[in-house]
Amino acid sequence: MLISHSLLHIHSPFLSCPLKLSSFSLPTHKTRPSFPRIKALDLDQNTIVAVSVGVASIAIGIGIPFFYESQIDSAAKRDNTQPCFPCDGSGAQKCRFCLGSGSVTVELGGNEREVSRCINCDGAGSLTCTTCQGSGIQPRYLDRREFKDDD
User: What is the pTM of this model?
Assistant: First the structure.
């Protein structure tokens, strides 16, 4: 078939009249076949929320220990000058058995009393503060704990 005019006549045994195509042009080069494009991920709202919560949980799980470690390190570098609360910075606490007198009075009955030296403080009336170990400075939280291996 030759194309010489802008008006093309096509004769076919299946058509009762000739088919006229005007402004018909054939491509001069071959076109590449088109491939199906890959669509973007089709995610619903629940999936997006679940993934976001998972990522946030991992970030928080990693971030919190790093934050506390940095706070512990910076606190260890600062001087501790806070006076001990239980002993008011003196390093000694009043004996709880003799109430600081150094002696214990026992009522024997019949108006008889026995006064003896306190066996808890050995008559001193005070004991070394168990919180600050006699230093008078309030220890930091982790310094108050003794980590013993009981094996």
Answer: 0.40
